[in-house]
Each structure stands twice: as C-alpha cells, then as structure tokens.
Amino acid sequence: MSILVISLPPRPRLRSRSAETAAAETSGGEEIDYLLSADGFTVQAQGRCAASLLPKADSVVAVVCDADIAWHRITLPKAPAARLRAALTGLLEDAVLEDAESTHFALAPGSIAGQPAWVAAIHRPWLAGVLAGLERREVFVDRVVPLSWPDDRPSGHFSEAIGTAQQDLTLTWANSDGVVVLRLQGGLA
C-alpha cells in the first residue's frame, strides 16, 4: 500500500507579508513538501511541488507543523463518546487562546477516561480550509498527524521556514512535559 506524506503549510501569523506571498496563499499556488513510500518503510520519491502535481497514493497523511498545535495535559473526563467534545470544551475553554468552538481537539491514542491524557488543539477553520483546498486539487487526506508530540523519550529538531520573507529558524523540543517551539532569532535565543 503506497503512502504519500505531505507537510501542511504553516498557519499564517500576524506579521507583515509581501503582496506576492499573500497572493500565492489565496490562490493555493504554494508548493508542498512530500514524501512517497510504496511500502511504508522505504522512500520512493520526495520533493516539493504544487498540490495538483503531487504523486498519487493509496493513503495520504498530512503532517501539521509544531507551531500550529497546542498540547494540553488533562485528566480525561468520564463522559460518553457523544458528550466527550462538550466535556473537553468545558475543561479547555480557559486554556485555549481562541474560542473553544473554533478549536479542533484530538486525543492521544490509548487515552483512558479518568487518567491523565494529552489533547492536541488546533484552529478548526484553518485546518478545514487547508484540507478543502487540497480536496479541490484532488488530494484526499486520510489522516492528520503532528510532527512532534509529548513523549517520555525527549526529542528535538531544528527547522527553517522556507519560502517566507523572513527565514525563521526554530528549535522544537518534545518530552513528557509537552512540546515547545522556540524561535532562535531575537532576544530569547
């Protein structure tokens, strides 16, 4: 079974952008990084191209960049599946920066009611818009996954925003306490 892994473009931030960048984002003309595997173990092809030119595969996995996900550690409420969304919204409404109704929550696999669990929070309208844009170009995403997640084994990586007016270099650090993304420019570095 072939798998296509694509990197979703980061969510636009509140910083000045050139008119060319804004036009490319609204037209959907930006390029997407991808990796294609015929068996899920070896890389068959990789590159960067427009969404309409992505190779075809049996399964498409979209990877969300670290800065677009907020991780929250909660005790998972004991609620029936039909009411779990409302329970999560009640628990996290003060922790999320935006309206909880416009936030998509995803639980870590294997989460058990009454036990501590990680919840990923992401801006729902942005994610829906990106996925709809891919579908208009006949790229149908089967799963959306994070690039980094909280884990007992610490991990980290450096990344650079390519194709933007500013070359942002960041350090992402993930451990059992959560995931943090640090810009390496400016006074904090």
At a glance:
By secondary structure, the chain is an alpha+beta fold.
Commentary on this structure:
This protein starts with a strand and ends in a 6-residue tail after the last strand. The protein is globular and about 45 Å long. Strands 3-2-1-4-8 form a 5-stranded mixed sheet, with no helix packed on it. Strands 5-7-6 form a 3-stranded antiparallel sheet. Strands 9-10-11 form a 3-stranded antiparallel sheet, with no helix packed on it. The protein is built from 3 helices and 11 strands. By secondary structure, the protein is of the alpha+beta class. The longest helix has 13 residues. Helices cover 16% and strands 35% of the residues.
Which features does this protein show?
alpha+beta; five-stranded mixed β-sheet; three-stranded antiparallel β-sheet; 189 residues
Instruction: Assign a percent range to the helix content.
Output: 10-25%
Q: How many β-strand runs?
A: 11
Sheet-strand content, in percent, reads: 25-35%
Largest sheet, in brief, is: 5 strands, mixed
Summed up, the helix count is: 3
Radius of gyration computed on alpha carbons = 18 Å
Poorly predicted regions are 16-27
> Distance between the terminal alpha carbons, to the nearest Å?
43 Å
Adjacency order of strands in the biggest sheet: 3-2-1-4-8
C-alpha geometry: globular
Mean pLDDT: 84
| Secondary-structure element pattern, one letter each | EHEEEEHEEHEEEE
Oligomer designation: single chain
The assigned structural class equals alpha+beta
